[in-house]
Amino acid sequence: MRLCKWSITDESAVGKVAECETRPHFSKQPEEAILLQMGSNILHTPTVVPSEMLAEYRTHCVWNLQWQNIALRLHKSLAQKQGTVFNISEVSSPASPGSPRTSDESRTLSPEVVAIAVLRMQVKSSTVCLAGAFSPLESIYDAFNPVFDDIVSLAEEIHSSYAGGYHFDFGIIPPLHITAMKCRHRTIRRRAISLLATTPFKEGVFDSTCCYQIATWFMGVEEDGVETEVIPEHRRLSTKESSLDMPRRRVHLQATNRKNAEDTELQWHETTIQW
User: What is the model's pTM?
Assistant: First the structure.
């Protein structure tokens, strides 16, 4: 089985879906139904994905690639017009992978620059969500650590010019929340969680404090007793239920993982978060 691949780091290669690469989750032909190979993970019942859903999925992949290209071109064009170089991931990299990029918090960014950075964050997080749409494995997200790093770096650049108060539209909270939940690179994950905690603000139904506490709980459960740098697949949580009570500012979470790689029995975790 094969999965159509797009570049996750080179946004200039947008507009073309590259040749298929061997991956264990998808069939090559769009007209074929997909049998998800669950293997030894916590999901045991094979699931057939209809061919119509697969075709729609690949359409979204192409659209997302086009938006990546548009957002990057807008970003570079605006920087050229303003006569500045906006220090985002394609311009420079941090001294070490996962480390925060230094930004001048006294610098006031124009609304246009902030808006384009938000757009790029959202497109990048959509790429991650699309990649994991049909995968039963949480470890599939490990390949996207460079994308998670870009998302957090973009947020660090604009945070002081953006965060705070209430925003009607979705902005940086959903991409940061996805990063905090799905990125298991310890440094990048903590950078995302830190940004959610720094300045309380809301975007639509998304509350930064709520997302911060949810991600912190997930991270604590997954890393509990894990001494290795990489969190094993069996320790990673899979959300089973999330019940949000917004008027009472409360959410009840249920998630599962396994005690060890050989164990087929699910281990349940639940908590109620109040913020």
Answer: 0.75
